[in-house]
Automatic annotation (TrEMBL):
Keywords: mRNA processing, Nucleus, RNA-binding. This is Cleavage and polyadenylation specificity factor subunit 2. It comes from Diabrotica virgifera virgifera. Pfam families: RMMBL (PF07521). One of its GO terms (molecular function) is RNA binding. It is found in: Nucleus.
């Protein structure tokens, strides 16, 4: 290969008169590449060590022709192998009375929460406006004071009272 060094760039040019020395065509091409080192994974994402021999398929070797003698011998060997792998078992059935000590509890999954959790949720949400409905006066006033503490506009309407909850602050008036 020759390199033209005139000018600003180095250009690699193939030699025109190059003669292949081998009889067969070379199929492997080497492309220019930055040095790269591939790390072999020794364990999976759960930390278990990967053993390649566990994933190799066993090669079945064909030994000679299957004549009558070989077939009979193979059948005897297979019967012996199956007999060795069978373990003796015995099934015993007993009836016993078992005393179960347990309780049944109803767990309410209606989306309700206790006061402390509600205060924590409101503090994290930091709402600008809050309308407190459905509760007795004492609990409603506690929640209203907490919301005023986090600088929110609080509305606590009584039954039948109408609250204007529209906010059109983005409109030029």
């Amino acid at each position: 290969m020759s390199v033209i060094t005139k000018g600003r760039h180095d250009i690699v040019i193939k030699q025109e008169g190059k003669i292949n020395a081998g009889f067969f065509k070379v199929t492997k091409k080497m492309y220019p590449m930055y040095p790269f080192h591939e790390e072999k994974i020794k364990s999976d994402e759960y930390g278990e060590i990967i053993k390649p021999e566990n994933y190799k398929l066993a090669d079945v070797a064909v030994e000679g022709e299957d004549n009558k003698e070989n077939v009979l011998i193979k059948k005897e060997v297979e019967e012996e192998i199956t007999e060795i792998h069978e373990q003796p078992t015995k099934c015993i059935v007993l009836q016993r009375t078992v005393q179960v000590n347990c309780q049944v509890h109803y767990i309410d999954f209606e989306g309700r929460s206790d006061g402390e959790s509600l205060m924590k949720i409101l503090s994290q949400l930091k709402p600008r406006r809050v309308i407190v409905v459905r509760g007795d006066e004492e609990n409603t006033s506690v929640i209203a004071k907490h919301c005023e503490g986090i600088k929110a506009r609080v509305f606590t309407p009584s039954r039948g009272e109408i609250v204007d909850a529209t906010s059109e602050t983005h409109i030029y008036q």
